[in-house]
Amino acid sequence: MIFGLEFPPIENLVEWPNLFGPTDSWYGFNKIALINLVALVGTAVLFLVAGRQKTLEPVTNAPKGSRNLVESAVAFIRDGIIVETIGPDGLRYLPFLASLFFFILITNIFEVIPFFHMPGNARMAGPAVLALLTWVYFIAVGIKHQGLKYFWNSVAPAGVPKALLPLVVPIELLSTFIVRPFSLAVRLFANMLAGHILLVTFTVLCITLWGASLLLAVLPFSFLMLVGLTGFEIMVAFLQAYIFTILASVYIGSSMHAEH
Q1: Can you give the pLDDT at residue 29?
Q2: In this model, does residue 59 exceed pLDDT 50?
Q3: Alpha carbon of 191 to those of 127, 232, 253: distances in Å?
Q4: CA dihedral defined by 246, 252, 258, 259, rounded to 10 degrees?
Q5: Residue 212 carries which DSSP code?
Q6: CA–CA separation, 255 vs 145, rounded Å?
């Protein structure tokens, strides 16, 4: 308790009781599992509905509704991420990268959705699974395009003198196959958890100040800060989905060609 303000313990911000099943079981279904399930189903439904929608605007002959939203987002991922980082050869990986982007964005945006107020990626398990999936994917792409030589090409860049290989190979091995998935997971997790803690802090502050007569004058400032942070978190939710997707695209592109 600080100046009469009581904040919840940090574990209450990220740990949620199981909706059913044993309380401490690893397989219990809680709020985080529900958020990920909704994001998975929501991503699939969004693409299915957009794919079935054939109507166009009568004047501009442009797609409308959910189809317009999905086509705009896919075009952004195609032109702003894949073409820029891989090139036209990377368009075959558009379905994976687009699904990755939408899933991460939806799980992140639950931070500001009423009754949820929790980004699914503020728990390490979700980002870790996404990072491992990306890790397996770019390794599979490397084997597909380069065969088993991919592993050597990844740790021994072309043009490196043989005398430096004993130094370069361990560094590249650690960087490519260990640091990449770890940094992907931690970056997404840490940013979403930090934003969640900030929003909870100012929400609790506003609630507490509402009942504190002496500190009531501070309430408008804390409320404005809460509104501003909410808008900021919406931007962060999109930005983290974009960063994760563009890094996944870069890793896939580097696996396609040995010279990278």
Answers
A1: 81
A2: no
A3: 11, 12, 25
A4: -10
A5: -
A6: 8
What mean pLDDT, rounded, does the chain reach?
Answer: 83
pLDDT digits (tens, 9 = 90+) for 175-225: 989 999 999 999 999 999 988 888 887 777 776 666 655 556 666 777 787
CA distance linking residue 28 with residue 171, whole number of Å: 40
Angle between helices 125-146 and 94-109 (to 10 degrees): 170
Are 70 and 50 in contact by the 8 Å Cβ rule? The answer is: yes
In degrees, rounded to 5, the angle at the alpha carbon of residue 66 between the alpha carbons of residues 60 and 67 is: 55
DSSP label of 40? H
* Alpha-helix residue ranges (DSSP H) falling in the chain: 11-14, 31-52, 66-77, 83-85, 94-109, 125-146, 149-155, 165-174, 180-210, 219-256
Q: Is 225 helix (H, G, I), strand (E, B) or coil?
A: helix
Sign of CA dihedral 172, 239, 39, 48: negative
Q: What gap in Å lies between CA 117 and CA 107, rounded to an integer? A: 11
Residue pair 234/68 in contact (Cβ under 8 Å)? The answer is no
- Residues above pLDDT 70, as percent of the chain: 80
Q: Output phi, psi for 5, to 5 deg.
A: -100, 125
In one-letter notation, the amino acid at residue 50 is A
* Structure-token pair, residue 174: 């650690």
Contacts of 207 (CB under 8 A, 6+ apart): none
Place of tokens 């699939």: 44
